[in-house]
Amino acid sequence: MKVVIIGGGIIGLTTALQLKHELRNAEITIFASDFNNTVSHVAAGIFRVGSSYFGPTEEITRCWIRDSYEYYDDIRKSHEASFAGITAISGYLFANSSPETVKNHWIEDLVPLYRKATDEEFELVEGNWKYGSFFRTLLTECKLHLPWARNKLEISGIKLIEKKLNSLTELVSDWDLIINCTGLGARSLCNDKRLVSIRGQILKVNAPWLKTFFYGELDTYIIPGFNGIVTLGGSRSFDSENLKPCLYESTAIHNRCKNLLPNIKKAEIVKVEVGLRPHRENNVRVEGEQIVKGFSKAILVHNYGHGGYGVCTAPGTAKYAIKLAKEMHKSSISKL
């Protein structure tokens, strides 16, 4: 089977890795307009799925999240963990608005520990917080994970080609299976009006003493990564596509993080980054269809619209997309 995956971010690369594992004899190629400048590179990578994330049903969504956690945790337990940029991490979530804000119905029963914060733990941060939770989860550092994934793909014989597509139909005559992992690119390729960008801005600071993550409200977070680099966030600007860093936004982010954890003010700011989250209204799109051009036809499976949770759930949606592709392929053969 000849397979082409479109998209060079975390969704496309993870889909390719899993597809190679399940269809060992498939000839796989990845097309992407850019492999080195995707929104995945900006993500802090903590495994924490927000309540706004949703697939076609709650059962399928839970399956995606569980499969994703298990995928990353298996890598964490392996000798490749440090190369793949995956580690365990613990931290806190604080809020004043409501006790529901510090709960998480997607991951509370999945991660090793999720509990209420103690009175002593409220003293770790500034502010008169009413509610708090402590939990252990995973971190995927994309600056390490994406190059690791690309290297594994190339070693296994998968071709990674920089190519900009104008239409999915131009692929039909050359490929049996097309998997669309284009994120925001699906707006034009699929004419998907439900897809909008949610702009995010973060600061990277050098704070090697910090090993624990902290979340506050108003999209405030402090997340340690690898090599002493910590992500300070963040922002969510709906339907904005300005990739230029905003000085006022950086100042606001820095101030919120310093108010939450004062010792972060001594950390040197090393970088400001901006990314566009591919948010799809109603639900993430992972579904299949048959695509036809003239007398040629191919199976097309979509896997996009993950919003700010692409890193978290890429393995789960990839597994589901491959399942759909195999079912459609089997069905097409049985009709011959």
UniProtKB/TrEMBL annotation:
<dbReference type="Pfam" id="PF01266">
    <property type="entry name" value="DAO"/>
</dbReference>
<dbReference type="GO" id="GO:0071949">
    <property type="term" value="F:FAD binding"/>
</dbReference>
<dbReference type="GO" id="GO:0019478">
    <property type="term" value="P:D-amino acid catabolic process"/>
</dbReference>
<keyword id="KW-0274">FAD</keyword>
<keyword id="KW-0560">Oxidoreductase</keyword>
<dbReference type="InterPro" id="IPR023209">
    <property type="entry name" value="DAO"/>
</dbReference>
<feature type="domain" description="FAD dependent oxidoreductase">
    <location>
        <begin position="2"/>
        <end position="322"/>
    </location>
</feature>
<dbReference type="GO" id="GO:0005737">
    <property type="term" value="C:cytoplasm"/>
</dbReference>
<feature type="binding site">
    <location>
        <position position="308"/>
    </location>
    <ligand>
        <name>D-dopa</name>
    </ligand>
</feature>
<feature type="binding site">
    <location>
        <position position="182"/>
    </location>
    <ligand>
        <name>FAD</name>
    </ligand>
</feature>
<dbReference type="GO" id="GO:0003884">
    <property type="term" value="F:D-amino-acid oxidase activity"/>
</dbReference>
<keyword id="KW-0285">Flavoprotein</keyword>
<dbReference type="InterPro" id="IPR006181">
    <property type="entry name" value="D-amino_acid_oxidase_CS"/>
</dbReference>
<dbReference type="InterPro" id="IPR006076">
    <property type="entry name" value="FAD-dep_OxRdtase"/>
</dbReference>
<comment type="similarity">
    <text>Belongs to the DAMOX/DASOX family.</text>
</comment>
<feature type="binding site">
    <location>
        <position position="277"/>
    </location>
    <ligand>
        <name>D-dopa</name>
    </ligand>
</feature>
<protein>
    <submittedName>
        <fullName>D-aspartate oxidase</fullName>
    </submittedName>
</protein>
<feature type="binding site">
    <location>
        <position position="221"/>
    </location>
    <ligand>
        <name>D-dopa</name>
    </ligand>
</feature>
